[in-house]
Amino acid sequence: MTNGLSDTLVGWRRELHQNPEISGLEFQTTQKIRQWLSEADIAILPLALKTGVVAQIGQGDGPVCALRADIDALPIEEQSDRPFSSRNPGVMHACGHDIHTSVMLGAALLLKEREASLAGKVRILFQPAEEIFTGARQLIDAGALEGVSVIFGGHNAPDLPVGEFGTRSGPLHANVDRFEILVNGKGAHAARPEEGVDSIVLAAHIITALQTLPSRAFSALDSVVLSVTRITGGNTWNVLPQQVELEGTVRTHNTAVRALVPEKITRLIEHIAAGFGAHAELRWHAGPPVLVNSAEWADFTKDVAAAEGYRVHDLPPLMGGEDFAFYLHHLPGAFVNIGSASAFGLHHPRFDPSEALIAPAARYFARLAQETLHKLQA
Ligand SMILES: [Zn+2]
Ligand SMILES: [Zn+2]
């Protein structure tokens, strides 16, 4: 069965990889997952979802444990040169969600074989739109967590070798917030700046001052990252533009620290702008919250990983975001990392994770779910 399972899952992964779909538009992907589950006689729950699939294995009144895979791809042109590289121009599975989907399909097949002996039910969430941080909330709103006691999910980790496993109890992924700043000066001829208010020079002062927030307005232990990632203003060489737009992101792990950031940015930019006789406005877009693993379940994922032969690490907190965090605001559970040994990182056009992780990870998640049901019943 082992080689057969591995071949099947690698085949499915390559089919998903060749046909990537961006967040929220995973229609063919949804169809394929439904087909593969149905062919294995695995029940699909009748939830009202535009894309994504929720399957369930097991029966009776026992506890319910959930496993989650994400299924969406990214707007990136693939450069991996693999024979199974993307056939959709400008779209690529550059985060390995094709791998995650095949892993959880494999877990579903293995759990189906053991269905009669399960001490409850395992619900498997194939979640859309992780990359735009809306998919988890869609599944929650559709009722995918109803009756569920514990949830687990995982991501491939390109910087870990295959066979290695990492997680931590407490905060793992960061609060992810996006901001825009509109800097409004007064347009003028570039040769006569005294007739206007230079929004470009003002934007430069604001960018520099923003970098003092993490270092001067918060403790070094607060782990605040602030990055300005876009500057848009002006369209020629001899005109000072009226307006400059800035965009960027703030990452934190502490909810109280996160709550202080918008007011500190607002105070800083309003006063700098006022000093120039101009106006600056913050637009704040809150993203997924910090992903907090339950200590009990993070430890349990590590115990099961060690028993499955993984080399287990305690990870430091990560500054990236993961919309699995929304589930953990409703339920206990844990999110884990499994080594995928790619020379190029997540979201890189040459990202190329090892397929050798797929079958062992499928066995791992099947065992994790099965043992979780026993633990919940005990
Ligand atoms: Zn990603
Ligand atoms: Zn991802």
Protein architecture, described:
This protein is of the alpha/beta class. The protein folds into 2 domains: 2-171 and 291-377, Zn peptidases (Aminopeptidase, 3-Layer(aba) Sandwich), CATH 3.40.630; 175-286, Alpha-Beta Plaits, CATH 3.30.70.360. The chain has helices spanning 2-18, 27-39, 97-113, 135-141, 199-210, 212-217, 255-275, 295-307, 325-328, 358-377; strands spanning 43-44, 53-57, 64-70, 121-127, 148-157, 164-167, 170-173, 175-184, 188-189, 225-233, 239-240, 243-252, 279-286, 291-293, 311-314, 333-339. The strands form 4 sheets. Strands 1-2-4-3-5-16-6-15 form an 8-stranded mixed beta sheet, with helices on both faces. The protein is elongated, with a radius of gyration of 24 Å. The mean pLDDT is 97. One zinc ion (ZN) is lined by residues 95, 97, 130, 155.
Précis, in short:
The chain is α/β, with parallel strands linked by helices.
Keywords for this entry:
alpha/beta; 2 domains; Alpha-Beta Plaits; eight-stranded mixed β-sheet; binds zinc ion; about 375 residues
